[in-house]
Amino acid sequence: MIERAFEQPVRTVSGFVSESKTGRVARVGVRSTGIIELDGIAVTMEDIASALERLSRENGAVWYWRENPAQQPPKEQWEASKAVLDCVAKNRLPIRLFLDRAFSQPVRIDVPRGGQPA
Questions:
Q1: What is the CATH number of the domain that holds 34?
Q2: Who's near 31: CB < 8 A, 6+ residues apart?
Q3: Rounded to whole angstroms, what are the CA distances from 51 to 37, 105, 117?
Q4: pLDDT (tens digit, 0 to 9) for every residue of the chain, 118 residues total?
Q5: Residue 30 phi/psi, 5° resolution?
């Protein structure tokens, strides 16, 4: 299943798999029910671990979103999100956070020059 997602032709942001300056981008989302998606396909945590390990070897990056980002996550979503983000960190992948499933609203963090995020 994961191989199928990565074998798709590279597309723009509106497609499933995109290119970044660093390489391929895996679009990972976590629904409020705890279901994890990779490039629009529901997958297991084992699938994510395998895909992110491969992505790390390809110098890729992760785009991440979670359903209802303005609310406290339910337990299932919290656990799935933590597992995904731990896997991203373990594989030392760059990550970009988004507010929506369409990956059209990136999270913006204002950092003053030479300072810490506000």
A1: 3.30.420
A2: 37, 66, 67, 77
A3: 12, 24, 31
A4: 444 444 333 333 333 345 555 579 999 999 999 999 999 999 999 999 999 999 999 999 999 999 999 999 999 999 999 999 999 999 999 999 999 999 999 998 776 666 666 5
A5: -130, 120
| Spatial CA neighbour of 8 closest among 21, 27, 22, 31 | 27
**Going by DSSP bridges, is the β-strand pair 61-66/41-43 parallel, antiparallel, or unpaired?**
unpaired
Q: Can you give the three-state secondary structure of 34-65, one letter per residue? A: CCEEECCEEECHHHHHHHHHHHHHCCCEEEEE
Q: Which domain holds residue 47?
A: 17-98
In which residue are the tokens 């929506």 written? 100
CA dihedral 2, 89, 11, 41 (to 10 degrees): 40
Tokens read off for 55: 């992505």
What's the domain count of the chain? 1
pTM for this entry: 0.75
